[in-house]
Amino acid sequence: MDLISLARELEAIAQTGLHFSEIEYDRERYERLREVSAELLAESSNLTKQDIYEWRKAEYGYATPKVDVRAFIVQNDKVLLIREDVDEGRWTLPGGWADVNDTPSLAIIREVEEESGYKVETLNLLAVLDREKQGHTPPMPYHVYKLFFHCKIIGGEPRATNESSESGFFSVDELPELSHCRVLEHQIKQLHEAVKTNNTTAMYD
After folding, report:
1. Is 93 exposed, middle or buried (0-12, 13-18, 19+ CB in 10 A)?
2. Half-sphere exposure in the Cβ direction for 43 (13 Å, CA)
3. Please, are residues 74 and 153 in contact by the beta-carbon 8 Å criterion?
4. pTM (whole model) above 0.70
5. Cβ-Cβ contacts under 8 Å for 147 (sequence gap 6 or more)
6. What gap in Å lies between CA 38 and CA 89, rounded to an integer?
7. Which of 89, 96, 107, 141 sits CB 3.0–4.6 Å from 102 for a disulfide?
């Protein structure tokens, strides 16, 4: 197991322990464990210890993976991508973190409109993938599941938004520079093949 995986496991143990334990001495130990994990996570990821402390403010209870939702939209055999201004103008499938009280399908509908201007509906779930196992970079301090939905456009129009400067349709054989933090080339090609062959069995892991 690599260092960041160990650090995430320590953080999860500490978070869960703080949620369930009422014994002062145990809580002190869990707090110290969180400090150690923060130092390890900061050393192993692109975040500072302060970034990690801010992220923790929203975390409580039993530690679980975060959920990232992505939309796979095809028109004329080309895939919709949006340009991520926060990642040096690289491209990705529209999507982002699922919000509390959103269902997964509502989360992706909201994300697509916010990032591209298009209104969509979901057709089916294509994949549930583990970000770490897939090889995304840079590493993150938390464990992430990525949900990919096949969607179709039902309205709206392309426009620049607060989250992306432009969107466009690309051939899977002529993809622009991708944001590897968010999506990988082999994922796009696998998803495209699933849609092309009408394979409704979701990929996983």
Report:
1. buried
2. 13
3. no
4. yes
5. 67, 68, 69, 70, 98, 104, 108, 125, 127, 128
6. 29
7. 107
Residue pair 132/68 in contact (Cβ under 8 Å)? The answer is no
117-140 confidence digits (pLDDT tens): 999 999 999 999 999 899 898 887
Locate tokens 């699922």: which residue? 98
Rounded CA separation 127/143 (Å): 17
Q: Tell me the C-alpha distance between 16 and 70, whole Å.
A: 28
**Lookup result for tokens 């591209």:** 116
24 CB-near residues (< 8 Å, 6+ apart): none
> According to DSSP H, which parts of the chain are helical?
3-20, 24-44, 49-56, 104-116, 131-134, 185-196
Q: CA-CA distance, 21 to 18, in Å (whole number)?
A: 5
Phi, psi of 32 (to 5 degrees): -65, -35
| Alpha carbon distance 126, 204 (integer Å) | 9
* Residue-wise pLDDT tens digits, 40-74: 877 777 777 777 766 666 665 666 888 999 999 99
Distance CA 93, CA 192 (A): 12
Give me 94's structure tokens.
């529209």
Three-state DSSP at 2 gives coil
User: 134: how many CB neighbours lie within 10 A of its CB?
Assistant: 16
